[in-house]
Design goal:
Strand content: 15-25%
Helix content: 25-40%
Radius of gyration: 24 Å
CATH superfamily of the largest domain: 2-enoyl-CoA Hydratase, Chain A, domain 1
InterPro entries: ClpP/crotonase-like_dom_sf, CtpA/B_N, PDZ, PDZ_6, PDZ_sf, Peptidase_S41A, Tail-specific_protease
CATH architecture of the largest domain: Alpha-Beta Complex
Keywords: Hydrolase, Protease, Serine protease
Protein name: S41 family peptidase
Structural class: alpha+beta
Number of strands: 21
Family: Belongs to the peptidase S41A family.
Amino acid sequence: MGTLKNTSLIGLGVIAGVAVSLQFSAMAQKPAEPVLPLEELRQLADVFGLIKSDYVEQVEDGKLLTEAISGMVASLDPHSAYLDKRAYAELREGSQGKFVGLGIEIGLSEDGYIKIVAPIEDSPAYRAGIKAGDLITRLDTTPVKGMSLDDSVKKMRGEPGSKVTLTIARKDEAQPLVFVIAREEIQQKSVKAKIVEPGYAWLRVAQFQEPTLDDMAAKLVELYQQDPNLKGLVLDLRNDPGGVLQGAIGVSAAFLPKDAAIVSTNGQLPDSKQIFYGRAEYYALRSEPDALAQLPEAVKKVPMVVLVNTGSASASEIVAGALQDYKRATIIGSQTFGKGSVQTIRQLTADTAVKLTTARYYTPKGRSIQAKGISPDLLVDENADGDGLNSLRTREADLEKHLRNDRDKETVKNVRDELEEQLRIVALEKKRKPLEYGSKDDFQLGQALNHLKGLPVQLAKSESAIVQVDEAKQKPAKK
């Protein structure tokens, strides 16, 4: 099988947990000469001519043709797309764990404003005094109420040194606050770790980026230096939208037997039919020392829980699926997003490219994750009294034109779907606030620790309801 020395497979997250797995290749293979459908191409030329001659305003040729390409690719599935100069640059930046911007994590507030989840430490926003919980009401002179997260991110990105004005509404402040902030290159840290109580550690991977494997290895070494006799480890992949596939292979390999198969892919192209193993040639991005060589032997045997939710997608599903197939860890949380396809980046010009779905990926036991996701071993709600905001998330199967699962037949409706719809309504009524992962109020983390200690785990309300339905079906009818 081929290795990954000259390619970088990545799965970058976008809004609502939608993730993609991508392949960059410096030597993109030349496609076979297609047999062109001349009649349809004549129709395209006729429509182009009609727009040029009859449309109410003049339209640039380049804009028409670019939009035609964009529409053609976007019609295939939710993850295929035409990447213009800006989108292509942002995609490459994101995989490297850096971007030019203000340095804030954002979400949508209940009333339609952009909410600051947290400023990134030592970023321009952090130094300017932006705080978690602040609401952005204007970006420069543009009101943001009703603006999508994607559009707001685009407005906050830009050239290094350029400035943007944020108008902020802050609780307990009578007047709006105005901050003028210069954009800088931001270095993101995707790995966090700490000893949550004696003998038990929490390791969070927020996104799989190029530095993730090195960062994770360093964090594991630090954890074992603090407590050489760890009795349990929680790997937190909640809301991890994906990332560099080599990172997912390496993270899996850190905890699995040497040379274990981690993930396989299959598609039309010969180079899309591959099996990726837990060896440095498959997870190393550069010719550097093996990041996993420094890990203590105890890492391979420490009891583990992997936390996932509906926001766990793509590369994070690869890790969860591999550790589940080998029975190396107990998966706790809710059904994952179900992003199980690979997109390949094909450059069109120096600054533009097409992102095209070219393969599906599979767990070591051959399970297809596409439009299904990873089912936890133990379903546990986000909060003690329900699944909170997690119930409101969209899955791959909810996306229009999503690629079908080729191993399992998709069911249109079942008991779980109906119960989850009820949970969505409850979550909306309760107006839950975003959860801080790893905090003392993190209910799912608490249940993961209970499992590692052999204590009872509070299962999800939906799971309890499903069990009751199943038991009712098995009871003989009274006559």
